[in-house]
Amino acid sequence: MTAQPQVAAFTHQLSDHLDGLARFWRERAVDPVAGYHTVFDAEGRADPETVKSLIAQTRLLWSCTALARVTNDSAFADLASFGLDYLVAAFGDNRAGGWYWTVRPDGTPLDSAKLIYGQSFALYALATCAEVLHDDAAHQAAARTFDAMESAVDARYGGYLENLDRDWNPERTPSGERKSLDIHLHLLESFTVLARLTGEERHRRRLGEVRGLILDKMIDHAAHAGKNQFTVDFRDVLPIVIDRTWIAERLESPPPAPQFLTTSYGHNLELGWLLGEADQVLEGSAAVHTDLVDAIGDHTLTWGYDAQYGGIYREGPMTGPATDTDKEFWQNAEALVGFLHAYQLTGRPEYFDAFAHTWEFANRHLIHPTAAEWRIRTTRDGQVIDGALGNQWTGGYHTVRAAIESVRRLKSLEGPAACDVPSDPKGT
User: Fold this and answer.
1) Which phi-psi region, left, alpha or beta, contains residue 35 (left: φ > 0; alpha: ψ -120 to 50)?
2) Could you give the 3-state DSSP secondary structure of residue 394?
3) Could you tell me which of 329, 418, 404, 423 has the C-alpha nearest to residue 76?
4) Range 284-288, long-range pairs (CB < 8 A, 24+ positions)
5) 372-32-403 Cα angle (round to 5)
6) What is this structure's pTM?
7) Rounded to 5 degrees, what are φ and ψ at 363?
8) In 92-170, where does DSSP find H-type helix?
9) Cα–Cα distance between 411 and 421 in angstroms, integer?
10) How confident is the prediction along the chain (428 residues), in pLDDT tens digits per residue?
């Protein structure tokens, strides 16, 4: 397949999909009890929520803000302001700083831990709100969040300690003694938006430190793949199921941790394009890491991409066939952007083919035919394992962002005249 004859058709399809996602959240986001609705069954019906999670609320706050930018629909600016007010009122820790992990709908804290994963998403959403809505309260909250997170900086080994209690003390558990690419990848995205928002040297410096740490410590440059978990001093370590993570809270009991080093194909492709965003802020160039993006893309095509059915698998060893061949929504949403990014940088048609085949799989099996949101997980050949359209971890973040980024990139391939979606130098 050559890309150009196909681009217009895919632009149309992804634009329609973005419209569908916007409709889904415009109609369903507000929970009349408190905050956003984030838990939906397989037909898009909201389930009553007795717990509100920082991850889902901030991800949906980011999604509504991003949709406010690209749709010019004032309803999303209103939804973003609504979510921002709830976040501050229900999740903000006025004593110790930062944000609670989970609360009851009335704002009573359930889990007051300061998990850097959650703090980073709060920062990402707040900084994006400040950019898009020109909201000074969001700007100030983002700055305070960054300042509070300084308590988690590991002055000895670099990077961030990831699992901390309410008062920012490291948790004395096996999970608290780990660092991960996952959390630092999300710090990369949140610090990118913050540094672009403020231009402050301290924000740019932390962004550069996290980017350098990922490049120096967290990528296997022989295998061309991201590693997974590390000791605090960045020694490779066999993965465990870390408390309060997506894996730990999957529909069924989490599988036993593999007895080999693993890589996530979704994180690898996501990292490639997020590095490009960081590079633009720090160096003014989106192509600083073209060779790395190409090498990571090659690794994914070799081991993580399903050439038969389309889409990418969950994970596998650093080299060798995938060991978990299920298709989850978030990896495949990120694959759309990651493959397009690799194609834009290299011009290699294999990447456009992989984008096209991944989109075709997702459109057929992962995306609900009328509701437009993505099901959580299928088997390799598309049999639904978890058909829910939202849970305490989703919030539209991967799916909305993938649609926005895919449309933007496809329109850039069509040429400047096609770019009626904002060119989005601010990264939503």
Assistant:
1) left
2) coil
3) 404
4) 286/345, 287/345
5) 25
6) 0.94
7) -65, -35
8) 116-133, 136-149
9) 8
10) 445 678 999 999 999 999 999 999 999 999 999 999 999 999 999 999 999 999 999 999 999 999 999 998 999 999 999 999 999 999 999 999 999 999 999 999 999 999 999 999 999 999 999 999 999 999 999 999 999 999 999 999 999 999 999 999 999 888 788 999 999 999 999 999 999 999 999 999 999 999 999 999 999 999 999 999 999 999 999 988 777 776 766 666 666 777 889 999 999 999 999 999 999 999 988 778 999 999 999 999 999 999 999 999 999 999 999 999 999 999 999 999 999 999 999 999 999 999 999 999 999 999 999 999 999 999 999 999 999 999 999 999 999 999 999 999 999 999 865 554 443 434 33
Q: Shortest CA distance to 66 belongs to which of 419, 371, 423, 400?
A: 400
Assigned fold of 4-418: Glycosyltransferase (1.50.10)
Q: Do the bridges between strand 179-180 and strand 219-220 make them parallel or antiparallel, or are there none, so unpaired?
A: unpaired
Q: Specify the DSSP class assigned to residue 422.
A: -
* 244 contact partners, CB below 8 Å, separation of at least 6: 101, 111, 113, 115, 163, 175
Torsion sign (Cα): 420, 360, 322, 229: positive
Q: Does residue 94 contact residue 120 with C-beta atoms inside 8 Å?
A: no
| CA dihedral sign, ordered 380, 24, 122, 271 | positive
Q: What whole-number distance in Å separates Cα of residue 93 and Cα of residue 166? A: 9
Q: Left (φ > 0), alpha (ψ -120 to 50) or beta: where does 381 sit?
A: alpha
Count CA atoms within 13 Å of residue 138 on its CB side: 29
Q: How many Å apart are CA 398 and CA 377, to the nearest integer? A: 14
Judged by DSSP in three states, 330 sits in: helix
d(CA 206, CA 212): 10
How far is it, in rounded angstroms, from Cα 342 to Cα 399? 19
